[in-house]
Amino acid sequence: MRFSTLALLTSALTACTTSAATTWNDYLQENVLASRQAFETKLTQCTEGQPPLKKIEAPWFAKLSNAEKYAAAVYLNTLLTRRCVGETEGTYSRDLFAYAAEFGKNDNFTAWEDYQRVYRADDTLFETLNVQPVLDYFDANTELNSFKILPFLEQYQNPFYIE
């Protein structure tokens, strides 16, 4: 009796795992889809409905040109967004990289590469800006959230323009 019960249990377990079998490709794709959904949900929570960022009164920011203020605001907002999405960004990166490494780059991987780059309207300006004061401000203000850049910059000049 014990043997037949054990055989029946083993047979049932084998049937369950066989029917749930998946390919490596399917497994990696499911991970990518699940982590992408979690990341997009978190990103929406981080970027929608946030209060405007108050004017930065620090001397280092005040003495920047309009173009430099724009670049600093872009960097700061990128840092704040990445802090907010946190682990979901890392999980999606890992899952997407694993899939791309196994099966080659795809449209999702290319779009992710584009997302990871900080948007630069003028590469030369972004290459020369000293970002240390931005990093120090970011580290000192842990309560800040991502923000809409144009309303923030309009606190300095309305309408805000870049020379």
TrEMBL record:
It comes from the Bacteria. Keywords: Signal. Residues 1-20 form the signal peptide. This is Lipoprotein. It comes from Enterovibrio gelatinilyticus.
